[in-house]
Amino acid sequence: MDWVVAIIGLAAGVSLGIGIAWLRGRGQTSEGVLREAERTLARAELEAKEKALTYREAEKAALEARRIDLQATEERLTQREATLEQRTANLSQREQLLETRENEAAVLRAGADQLTEQARSELEEIAQFDSQAAKAALLERVEDEARREAMVVVRELELKAREEADRRGRRILTTAIQRLAAEVTSDSTVSVVPLPSDDMKGRIIGRDGRNIKAFEAVTGVDLVVDDTPEAVAISTFDPVRREVARVALQNLVVDGRIHPASIEEAHVKAQSEVEQSVRDAGEWALLDVGVSRLHVELVTLLGRLKYRTSYGQNVLSHSVEAAHIAGMLAAELGIDPAEAKRAALLHDLGKAVSHEVGGSHALVGAEIARRFEESPAVVHAIEAHHNEVEPRTLLAVITQAADAVSASRPGARRETLESYVRRLEQIEEMAASFDGVDRVFAMQAGRDVRVVVDPGKISDLEAGDLARRIAKRIETGLQYPGQIQVTVIRELRTTAFAR
Fold this sequence. Notes:
Layout: H1 2-26, H2 31-127, H3 131-178, E1 190-194, H4 199-205, H5 210-219, E2 222-224, E3 231-235, H6 239-255, H7 260-289, H8 296-304, E4 309-310, E5 313-314, H9 315-333, H10 337-345, H11 361-371, H12 376-383, H13 394-408, H14 417-432, E6 437-443, E7 448-453, H15 460-477, E8 485-490
Helix pairs in contact: 1-2, 3-9, 3-15, 5-7, 6-7, 7-8, 7-9, 9-10, 9-13, 10-12, 10-13, 11-12, 12-13
């Protein structure tokens, strides 16, 4: 700043000097004016010097203040360096202390492990029980406790599920059964033809048995002429053939002319009548159930069920009844009733050809339905209604339920005494084959099985599991209508005598 002020003062002096010189050159200025200009020039130089001096002093003061600030900053930096060095020293001490403590802890852990191993060895020697065996025993005990807790949970869930299922199932089945009022039918596998008199038996037999032999040869049935008054019996395994023979014999009895030629004519006419009756029965079943667009061959096979019985129950009536029940069950469950009716109506289709084709009627019927392009859902319901195939759809389950309801209602079916007794014996033998079972009683025609177990071998929780296993064995080992209830009874009695 000093040199700037000096330059400014010098420039002012030079300018003033030039002006004075110019005035002298003109010779128009007096001496007083010149002297005054010189004084002014001197004052300007003096003021310039004073200002320069003032600026110099201010600059020195600023430099001194900056020097002081620099010294303070240097002192702070020095102090901070000292603090950092102190902290570094403290960290080094801490690291050394941590290393020392880690070494001591490692020594202590090694000593503790050694003591633990020594104590374990001593305990094993005292108890004669190694750690692996102890671990196995502990795991076994934990497993038993877990299994017991799981059985308790399963039992509670099963009770709740069973109560809810029973409640809803009872409501749905009751609603469906109450809406259906079907008559009870019971047919025989032997057809009886009434005669106007016993003299007609001789005409049926003919000279040397010629007529009866011709009748049996043409119709393919067995004609039983015994001591039954005013009646003869027709027996064969084919229900349609038996019906044709019955109609033919009735026509012959009404006509009165019985000889080999008339027998052949009557048989041809009876065949035509029965075939028409079969078609009418199939169409009646479709109209009754409300099923449409069924292949004509399926209609014929369905009509043939009119002459087929199962445990005394007419199979066509059973199929129609099952179709109505299936439709009502489907409506209660919120699915399409039409498909359920179709599956239930066709579920026993295989029985129409069971005497001609070997195998389960469910599988045979499913194959026939598949051949005539029924839907896969209907085919599966047919093949699964007796569990030959595991049910995978709700439609199959509904078909099973409808079949069971129709077959198990009172009076729908009858069994021979021999098959009835054999089934009860099989149920008792299956239940008695399980370990811990003491006695077995099949009650209510085999629909209620009471199993008495040894309380020392079967616990309360194991009783529920045993009931499920017995029910599963009966389910897979027997064929039966409806359902069988298995009840396991566990009772502990202690007796003492006072003398």
